[in-house]
């Protein structure tokens, strides 16, 4: 298929700049993938579509306040670092801007001097490996001085950084939020569990490659980024038990989907696992694990809309997106949600 087949027109004013309050008051477009039928609901209604014996799988990665502003120690020139992934003890792969101010051996200071960095290596793609120096906990330091790495299409300042974090975020490591999970509240999760629905967690640290545009017109030529995941034994047991008893697996987000589909066998069985995945899911893919998907509305021509099209069907997906535009749903990270059943 061609990249251009996944394009749709989106008025700029439909790109959500702020999350709604409360979290579960966002709109929910429900798509039946068997017949293409659409329903317009509120996110808190998602519980109506979950049955006792089903399970809900969530990505508990925690977004780092990964945008750091500092200065070069010798010239005082200002610089921006964006943490991408941990590469070793105190070593991180980073994007620097402007790049010419961050060459091998250059040193930098951030905050009130509580964080220092030296560029150890310039990678072929232009990213850098930086070694950091600090007192105490690295995560506590960047929590004080860092800013949330909001996507480029969100141009307004986020007043509360916790709103770009799921309520169940636990494992530090993401450069972006698993945004389908932003709609859940603690109360909605409690109601879900009380209804007899199993809740399990995976961890997939979302990289900025998620937002990397597809440049190849033939989508099969696109090279997918790699992301680190952990699938615990208790989550594997929950999924296998759910499947065995005839229940459905609801994946919350494309990151959950990619994790589960990377680990599942063709029989749909899951085992505890940890590793890196660069799985690229597009129409024609045969799903092995998930039965239903909760997701946000994604950018035109992105790998994420391709994944949704693979799951829901291309025509169903593009029709749902057209309907969402016509009905003025809010799009992207802070936008409304879709449930595909």
Write a brief caption for the model.
The chain is an alpha/beta fold.
Find the CATH topology of the largest domain. QueA-like
What's the rounded overall pLDDT mean? 95
Helix and strand sequence = EEEEEEEEEEHEHEEHEHEEHHE
- What's the CATH H-level homologous superfamily of the largest domain? QueA-like
Main sheet overview = 9 strands, mixed
CATH class assignment of the largest domain: Alpha Beta
Helical/strand content category: alpha/beta
Task: Give the percentage of residues in beta strands.
Answer: 25-35%
Number of strands: 17
Low-confidence stretches: none
The number of helices is: 6
Could you explain the architecture of this structure?
- This protein has two domains: 3-63 and 160-340, QueA-like; 67-145, QueA-like (Thrombin, subunit H), CATH 2.40.10.240.
- It is 18% helix and 28% strand.
- The mean pLDDT is 95.
- The protein starts with 26 loop residues before the first strand and ends with a strand.
- Helix 5 crosses helix 6 (314-326).
- It has a nine-stranded mixed beta sheet with strand order 2-1-17-16-14-3-12-13-15. Strands 5-6-7-10-9-8 form a six-stranded antiparallel beta barrel.
- A hairpin with a 2-residue loop joins strand 6 and strand 7.
- It is of the alpha/beta class.
- It is globular.
Protein topology:
Blueprint: E1 27-31, E2 38-42, E3 55-59, E4 61-63, E5 67-72, E6 78-88, E7 91-97, E8 107-110, E9 115-122, E10 128-134, H1 138-145, E11 171-174, H2 186-194, E12 198-204, E13 227-231, H3 233-244, E14 249-252, H4 254-263, E15 273-277, E16 292-296, H5 303-312, H6 314-326, E17 337-340
Parallel strand pairs: 1-17, 3-12, 3-14, 4-11, 14-16
Antiparallel strand pairs: 1-2, 5-6, 5-8, 6-7, 7-10, 8-9, 9-10, 12-13, 13-15, 16-17
Helix pairs in contact: 5-6
């Amino acid at each position: 298929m061609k990249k251009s087949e996944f394009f749709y027109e989106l008025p700029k004013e439909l790109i959500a700049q702020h999350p709604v309050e409360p979290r579960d008051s966002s709109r929910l477009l429900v798509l039946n993938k068997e017949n293409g039928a659409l329903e317009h609901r509120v996110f808190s209604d998602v519980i109506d579509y979950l049955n006792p014996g089903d399970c809900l799988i969530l990505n508990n990665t925690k977004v780092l306040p990964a945008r750091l502003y500092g200065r070069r120690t010798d010239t005082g020139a200002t610089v921006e670092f964006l943490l991408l992934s941990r590469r070793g003890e105190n070593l991180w792969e980073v994007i620097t801007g402007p790049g010419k101010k961050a060459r091998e051996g250059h040193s930098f200071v951030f905050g009130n001097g509580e964080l220092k960095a030296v560029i150890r290596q310039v990678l072929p793609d232009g990213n850098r490996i930086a070694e950091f120096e600090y007192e105490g906990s690295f995560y506590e330091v960047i929590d004080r001085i860092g800013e949330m790495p909001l996507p480029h299409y969100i141009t307004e300042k986020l007043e509360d950084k916790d709103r770009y974090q799921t309520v169940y975020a636990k494992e530090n490591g993401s450069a972006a939020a698993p945004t389908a999970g932003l709609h859940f509240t603690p109360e909605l999760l409690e109601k879900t569990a009380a209804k007899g629905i199993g809740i399990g967690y995976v961890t997939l640290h979302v990289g900025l490659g998620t937002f990397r545009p597809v440049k190849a017109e033939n989508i099969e030529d696109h090279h997918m980024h790699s992301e680190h995941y952990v699938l615990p034994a208790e989550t594997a047991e929950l999924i296998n038990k759910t499947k065995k008893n005839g229940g459905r697996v609801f994946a919350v987000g494309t990151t959950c989907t990619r994790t589960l589909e990377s680990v599942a066998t063709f029989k749909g069985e899951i085992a505890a696992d940890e590793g890196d995945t660069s799985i690229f899911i597009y129409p024609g893919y045969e799903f092995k694990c998930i039965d239903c998907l909760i997701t946000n509305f994604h950018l035109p021509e992105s790998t994420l809309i391709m994944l949704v099209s693979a799951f829901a069907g291309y025509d169903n997906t593009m029709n749902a997106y057209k309907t969402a535009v016509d009905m003025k749903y809010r799009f992207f990270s802070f936008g409304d949600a879709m449930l595909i059943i």
